[in-house]
Amino acid sequence: MATVGKNVAKTTRGEAHPTKRDGWRSYARALGPGLVTGASDDDPSGIATYSQAGAQFRFAMLWAALLTLPLMAGVQEICDRTALATGKSLGELCRRRFGRIGRTVMTVLLVALLVANTASVATNLLTIGSGMALLHAGPASLWALIAGVLIMVLIVAGSFEKIARVFKYLCLSLLTYLIVLVVAHVPWTTVAANTFLPHIKLTGPYLGLLVAVLGTTISPYLFFWQTAHRVEELEAELEGGDQAVTLKSRTRRDAKAKTRRSRFDVFFGMGLSNIVMFAIITATASTIGTHGSHNIQSAADAAQALKPVAGSLSTVLFAIGFIGTGFLAVPVLAGSASAGLAGFFDKDWGFSRSVRQAPLFYILVGVGTIGGTVLSLAGVNPIRLFVVVAIINGVAAAPFLIALMLVSNDREIMGQHRNGHLATVVGWFTVTLMTIAAIAMFATGGV
Prior knowledge:
Structural class: mainly alpha
Number of helices: 21
Radius of gyration: 21 Å
Helix content: over 70%
Number of strands: 0
Largest sheet: none
């Protein structure tokens, strides 16, 4: 993963107008905000939640991976298009779209998102600590503290992207789950049946974990991260100087090409994210879940899913992946809510700006990161907290999605790039699904 803004390579006129010979290379170069968003979705919270789903209910939630793919892709495409069309972040657009009452509601929601993300930061720091503990490098709480301080220093100093490249490759270890599908004894007939035929259990534990799966896959912080990352990519293009080059500022041909490549970026990122989700649930169900329902209590428990591939090295492999994804998730979580709030209050934001240029943004990032560091020292079980945070995201997703749909359907804001029929159906269906799932969970005592 790379940090928003500073790591975005400036594009040239040739890249903005790919030739036929350029072909697939222009799409490969276009992989950025969408790919990063998809990768950040498979953070330790997602890994823990998907592992818990496979261990407790085996293949019974695989249908959710198939369902969330088009919904997640559709929602993130809407987020991405709002940034392309306006050159503004979702927080800035919400400020423009809503009146006094709406702004009050959005302020409450954004503050709640910052609090939830702070808890997520804590769990990710604990994840780094748990990974180091699995490697017998020392106490988890000590490494959580070291990681929190280090990340904050790197963010403020502006050098985080230099080591982010290293940790990005550590996350590739999670692709081992795909290998598990080949090596482990996977009952593919059962997998297919559960993937295409939903096996829904109207019980509190099942619905609670289902909301967690939906919440960690279609998370509110991803909405704000996608728009923020895309805006800073637009600002980095040579054509606009320091200003974002919006679709309406481009030639018709260039606007269509930019839209196509950006959609490819988003769909590729969301597709990869859901493939990993499917692999984790299946791999865990085929290994840990083979002896009946199993409640994962620690990172060491979750690491057992990799034994068919890595054997005695499964703990080491899992630890490396946990450390890498945990390290990369912290600035994403802290930055998404901070960008949303700063933009909503009409203040400068973004890691590409200095502390002096965007003081409120960095204060909020500091609140999330330092607050998460302090919370990580409270001795909370990270696996349990991951699922709780995922449930919170699942409940909070609906109101944020409503705000997104109102913004993206607004003719004055979006012009000719407002939602079409398909995007409107996908968006509002996602709102309905997340709302029904949350209500069902509360009704059955799933929390």
